[in-house]
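User: Once you have settled down, look closely at the record that follows, taking as long as you need, and be ready to discuss the fold:
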Amino acid sequence: MKEKIQKKAIVIGAGIAGLSSAIRLQNAGLQVAVFEMNDYPGGKLTEFINKGFRFDMGPSLFTMPQFLEELFTNSNKNIEEYFSYKRKETVCHYFFEDGTTFQAPAKEQDFAKRASQTFNVAEENILNYFQKSKTKYDLTSSLFLENSLHKLATYLSKDTLKAIFKVRSLAINSTLHDYNANNFKDPKLVQLFDRFATYNGSSPYQTPGIMSMIPHLEQHYGTFFPKGGMHSITQSLYQLAIDLGVEFKFNSKVEKIIVHNKIAVGILCNDTTYFGDYIISNSDVVPTYRALLKDQKSPEKILQQPRSSSALIFYWGIKKEFPSLDLHNIFFSKNYQKEFEYIFDKKKVSDDPTVYINITSKENKSDAPQGSENWFVMVNVPSNTGQDWDAIIKKVRKDVINKLSDSLSVNLEDLIVFESVLDPRLIESKTMSYQGALYGASSNNKFAAFLRHPNFSQLISNLYFCGGSVHPGGGIPLCLLSGKIVSELILKDS
């Protein structure tokens, strides 16, 4: 009897989605090799340490841990041996221009009660909003998040038919802002719920109202802090992959995906050809086609979709502790609409941007020297289309320092003892994210989900895609799910 030959899978990029697909395929019996251009895994989800301050460089919000836990369960490994985390009682601390502050509790009932005391809203209105948010998620998660959006079987499922019959409740034909403004009278509360558009790099004034499901992910599933910071997610998955037998090749920038007779058969890397039965790109879909598939027909309509927002991040070592701040903090702009018009229409940054501050030393004291804090200070900015970023950085830094100094009644400039900056140019060069966009294409229209690249090639057999630039989108949970979708497609096709 002939011995069955073990099939090989090649994963391009060791981002969170690449790790997810590699782990699942290795568990399924394939021989998996991951090629990564950097000397570390994780893509955007990495860290650095300087002058006693530790910073997570990329994603700072951890929610829906079940998608992470599933990888360990499927691997017959105890997650506690690799990774631990705790649930946060406060989701975020909000600061408004008029001096109003709001500490958002994790539990829906507590959130509603406190919101009714802070904003012009009744508790039942908040709870009703959360219920509608849950309904949207329950109706659409199977279609938009957990299965390929580009396979007929997905549309023939019971879940999809149920969603179609209740399409009016999904608020697809309204913008998120209009939907929120119809639900709440208080403009500050509207702004609070509008900000969830930034979770996929979009504008609340353009993205559809269905995005009002996002608060459900925070309020129902909770937000968490991983012991050791966000980077420990990367480290735990990388170690799991190693323990399962996944091979990693770092400092290995793939030059070409080799296609023969419309079948992906291997890659060219460091002038060496590597053959595989399945090729999975965790690289941004645009450079994948532009650089790795130059001699193949590219899906121009998809590749030319407008990009999501990017980020300008200041990593500041602050020689002071602020009891009024939490792990997650948001200082809102006065004119939210103007801010997004600048980002998406003018491709600029407004004079008064919303500022997000993540401080992991609130949870992990060793992340900063005693009496100090590590501030991850982020402003949403447009993707890189050739702007004068040096001038933008200088101006935004000044605006942010003035804004925070006023809000916190300090001279912030005097407290900064360490500084590093990450801008869209660096995001693009370090992570191959086209134009430094954090989430690939934007979700600023109701058809955006369908205009994301599928998790497989419709023209080339055995070629697959995962990560934030393809279906179902960016962010840790969705990237983990894209790795799951890819592995399931491969196993069905094999």
Remarks:
- DSSP finds 16 helices and 20 strands in the chain.
- Residues 123-146 form the longest helix (24 residues).
- The mean pLDDT is 91.
